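Slide 14.
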Amino acid sequence: MNDILVAALYQFTTLDDFEAMRDPLKTFCEARDVRGSLLLAAEGINGTLCGPEAGVRAVLAHLRGDPRLKDLSHKEAWTDRHVFKRMKVRLKQEIVRLAVDGVDPTEIVGHYVKPEDWNDLISDPDVVVIDTRNDYEFAFGTFDRALNPQTQAFREFPDWVEGAAPLKAKPKVAMFCTGGIRCEKATAWMLQNGFEDVYHLEGGILNYLEKVPQDQSLWKGECFVFDDRVSVDHQLQPCWGAWVPEEARHILNEDTDYEKGLSVDASAQAEAKS
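Slide 15: predicted structure.
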């Protein structure tokens, strides 16, 4: 029975008191059997929660009760068990680390593209499609025609853009990531660096998989997530590490229960997908 709600959430907003928010928020979550990983920084909040529906919705309502977080975005999925062992709330310099000063998605950001309109955009041969995620995430699945920046961390993305031959003429660019947060910061950076036609998938891959029927989809493979599910399929159902590409073996979340070393059946699946 899928009675555990998973909510991936984020919002860029000024949180001057983010350090003071940490302990009360962690206590509020734990009192409702909500687990997960949240990042707090002066620029906002980012993370994933899981737990009984009532508990997760109480936490989301609690967060949105802060006027600064009233527009908090979240995406939902369901599982039959917790996908985190514990609740962690970490303090960070950035909620998604680009390591470049002066990038503020609340001031400038690319054009949002709804999932229903995404296929037309990325099918245009004049559009350069970029997967802003890391190499190990790309290995699980991606969109048709997407470039792989071959990064191991998001902070490597600006260097890749500056050296990427397909981007030298600053073409029309369509970008995507798991839930939308990396693209918000990446598009802000690109607009500040001379690109003018920059678009990104609203709500990310998770929103696309929810909104676009599989028979109309341009997504190929699974979508990596940073919890025990390891990845999700086109119906947002957890795959629990049944297949893990070689590129991803080294980065499986230290908080997960995934056991390295595929079973015989999983190894056969991996060979079939290779």
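Speaker note: The longest strand covers residues 4-12.
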